[in-house]
């Protein structure tokens, strides 16, 4: 069965960091605390998934030590991500409960908090009289990060967060409001914030995956003790700028202030405007935002889809597409124009979509992996490659793991469908590794 495939010879080259295909030893003592030394950078990992942040940071330096992590999948009986996480990293410091039910006093002190928090509606539901003053809509997980930072007796001084690129422009009815709330709430808690929208493929990695990455640091940390201007921080001196260089020519910086309490921002920020004021790069201190559109500048090696695919001989037969099914795949991938009717309103409209490459090019980085990548049913968004013998096939789980720069068989133990889902939810670990390397270079804690 495909779940038992084990491939030792990772077909990985620079700029991917070499790593073992085996997972970390599982802890024999589920209740034990993670041992740390004074040289360690203690990390809390929230919404941990299968440990993408942890892999990236630990590749950057063995000084990063995850002391506590939380992964909970709502409305799911089998917690596949949590199981995979514990299999690879052990159970010490692992929490598999709804983060909203965790008492902040149960979370150990840490230097850094990391997490890829889900993209939801971040608006403020109400203003409260109790300490802290704000409460987000029920179930919105950003406010759980905020709760931990606000209520912990020793909140982490550093944050690395990840979200979809549209975070900077959501919601459609009030462009940029969600990100403004996040920036303002972090500023009010004493953090400076740097952000960058990064497409992993533009820095040599094997997948075209565009995500917003946020690095934040407390005003009283070593990172804040600098006289670097906001524009220089964005373009050439910041953590993101060093980890992901940009073209420094003719970069226009826009400056503005986020005004009002969080409820007022939720109600009024950028109301009536059609464009978000936030560009793909920026820096904020004391609610003063500096933002710019920056272009990547990378001259290193690139990894293509073809570089990571396994030999045809080891691909299980169920991943090959039968000839009789090819027309269905070609239709799914092809361009379309048709009339559609909204069932709720009866409104008729024209729907169209452009053609997609079929098969996928193996000479370029892959398209973005989505959670629906698994399964044999024809789909517009699943990857299909053509083999040397002329057969068409889907990608196997190991290849999906490699596209996110995970170790081979990191998710082994889950079904093929779930393994694809887990990688669709994951991040490209090489991005975190680069941020971690730059953090270590200048950390003086």
Give a description of the structure.
It is a single chain. With 445 residues, the chain is α/β, with parallel strands linked by helices. The protein folds into two domains: 10-300 and 427-442, Vaccinia Virus protein VP39 (Rossmann fold); 305-424, DNA Methylase, Chain A, domain 2 (Alpha-Beta Complex), CATH 3.90.120. Helix content is 23%, strand content 19%. The chain contains twelve helices and 16 strands. The strands form four sheets. It has a ten-stranded mixed beta sheet, sandwiched between helices. Helix 1 crosses helix 12 (429-442) and helix 4 runs antiparallel to helix 7 (262-268). The chain is globular, with a radius of gyration of 22 Å.
Q: How are the SSEs placed, and which strands pair?
A:
Elements (H helix, E strand, L loop, with lengths): L40 E6 L5 H9 L3 E7 L9 H10 L4 E2 L16 E4 L8 E4 L6 E3 L5 H10 L6 E7 L12 H12 L2 E9 L10 E9 L11 H8 L1 H5 L10 E4 L4 H7 L12 E5 L2 E5 L12 H4 L17 H8 L2 E6 L6 E6 L30 E3 L5 E3 L2 H7 L12 H9 L4 H14 L3
Parallel strand pairs: 1-2, 1-4, 2-3, 4-7
Antiparallel strand pairs: 5-6, 7-9, 8-9, 8-11, 10-12, 11-12, 13-14, 15-16
Helix pairs in contact: 1-12, 4-7
């Amino acid at each position: 069965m495909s779940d038992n495939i084990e491939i030792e010879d990772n077909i990985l080259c620079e700029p991917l960091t070499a790593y073992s295909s085996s997972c970390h030893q599982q802890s024999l003592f589920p209740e034990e605390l993670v041992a740390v030394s004074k040289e360690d950078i203690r990390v809390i990992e929230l919404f941990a998934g299968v440990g993408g942040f942890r892999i990236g940071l630990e590749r950057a330096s063995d000084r990063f030590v995850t002391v506590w992590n939380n992964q909970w999948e709502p409305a799911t009986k089998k917690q596949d991500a949590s199981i995979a996480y514990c299999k690879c990293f052990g159970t010490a410091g692992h929490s598999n409960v709804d983060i909203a039910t965790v008492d902040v006093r149960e979370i150990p002190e840490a230097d850094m908090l990391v997490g890829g928090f889900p993209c939801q509606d971040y608006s403020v539901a109400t203003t409260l009289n109790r300490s802290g003053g704000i409460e987000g809509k029920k179930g919105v997980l950003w406010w759980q990060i905020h709760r931990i930072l606000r209520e912990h007796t020793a909140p982490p001084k550093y944050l690395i967060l990840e979200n979809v690129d549209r975070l900077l422009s959501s919601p459609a009815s009030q462009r940029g409001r969600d990100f403004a709330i996040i920036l303002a709430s972090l500023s009010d808690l004493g953090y400076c914030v740097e952000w960058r929208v990064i497409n992993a493929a533009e820095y040599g990695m094997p997948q075209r995956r565009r995500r917003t990455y946020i690095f934040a640091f407390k005003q009283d940390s070593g990172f804040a003790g600098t006289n670097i201007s906001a524009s220089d921080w964005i373009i050439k001196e910041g953590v993101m700028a060093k980890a992901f260089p940009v073209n420094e020519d003719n970069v226009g910086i826009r400056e503005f202030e986020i005004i009002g309490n969080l409820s007022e921002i939720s109600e009024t920020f950028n109301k009536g405007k059609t464009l978000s004021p936030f560009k793909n790069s920026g820096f904020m201190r004391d609610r003063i935002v500096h933002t710019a559109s920056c272009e990547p500048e990378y001259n290193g090696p690139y990894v293509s889809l073809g570089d990571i695919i396994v030999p045809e001989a080891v691909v299980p037969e169920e991943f090959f597409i039968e000839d009789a099914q090819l027309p269905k795949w070609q239709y799914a991938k092809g361009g379309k124009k048709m009339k559609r009717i909204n069932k709720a309103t009866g409104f008729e409209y024209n729907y169209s979509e452009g053609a997609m490459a079929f098969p996928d090019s193996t000479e370029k980085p892959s398209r973005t992996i989505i959670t629906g990548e698994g399964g044999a049913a024809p789909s517009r968004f699943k990857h299909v490659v053509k083999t040397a013998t002329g057969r068409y096939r889907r990608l196997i789980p190991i290849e999906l793991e490699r596209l996110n720069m995970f170790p081979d068989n990191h998710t082994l133990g889950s079904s093929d469908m779930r393994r694809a889902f887990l990688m669709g939810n994951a991040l490209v670990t090489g991005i975190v590794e680069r941020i971690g390397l730059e953090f270590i270079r200048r950390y003086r804690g």
